[in-house]
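User: tokens in, sequence out, please.
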């Protein structure tokens, strides 16, 4: 940026990735649109995203809250859900299975193997539940693994989840509450068999 300043080239910094809230990231469309005189169109797009988001949250607000585990194991280390994923679980009508723990590791996961309804594997590259069991054989004891309620990120997750927060929330609602919103075509997640 110093070089741009030295050359007298005007610039702006786009920091949408630092927004903690998915709707906050989506709202940056208004900022970018201003450079193209498309503010009205951007406001309309954002309002559509926000309306769908609020409708999904309302749809599941009063339903039972299944317990959702969200983690990946890489290099023998378990990486649990961050604050953003935990909030998405809540908004989609679930509850984070390990909310009472400040530190989540494999011991905690196995201790609560029967207290979890759904597992979201927060990575892609696995195609089946057996692929996850190959990474950590003891996961075969988890209730969602036994019941087949295991999902993983699709290869498109990292490219599209920030751009389409309403799609992210919608797919989580499909995962957590298929009785309220029957699943459509998944783009961001994959159901493992």
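Assistant: Sequence out:
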């Amino acid at each position: 940026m110093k070089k741009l300043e030295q050359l007298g080239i005007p610039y702006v910094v786009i920091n949408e990735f630092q927004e903690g809230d998915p709707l906050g990231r989506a709202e940056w469309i208004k900022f970018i649109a201003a450079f193209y005189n498309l503010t009205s169109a951007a406001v309309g797009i954002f309002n559509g995203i926000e309306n769908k988001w609020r409708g999904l949250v309302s749809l599941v607000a009063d339903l039972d809250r299944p317990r959702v585990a969200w983690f990946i194991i890489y290099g023998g280390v378990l990486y649990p859900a961050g604050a953003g994923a935990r909030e998405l679980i809540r908004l989609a009508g679930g509850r984070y299975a390990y909310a009472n723990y400040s530190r989540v590791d494999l011991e905690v996961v196995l201790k609560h193997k029967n207290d979890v309804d759904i597992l979201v594997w927060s990575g892609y590259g696995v195609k089946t539940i057996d692929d996850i069991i190959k990474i950590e054989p003891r996961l075969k004891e988890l209730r969602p693994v036994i019941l087949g309620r295991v999902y993983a990120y699709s290869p498109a997750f990292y490219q599209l989840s920030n751009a389409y927060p309403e799609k992210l929330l919608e797919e989580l609602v499909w995962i957590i509450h298929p009785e309220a919103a029957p699943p459509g075509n998944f783009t961001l997640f994959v159901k493992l068999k």
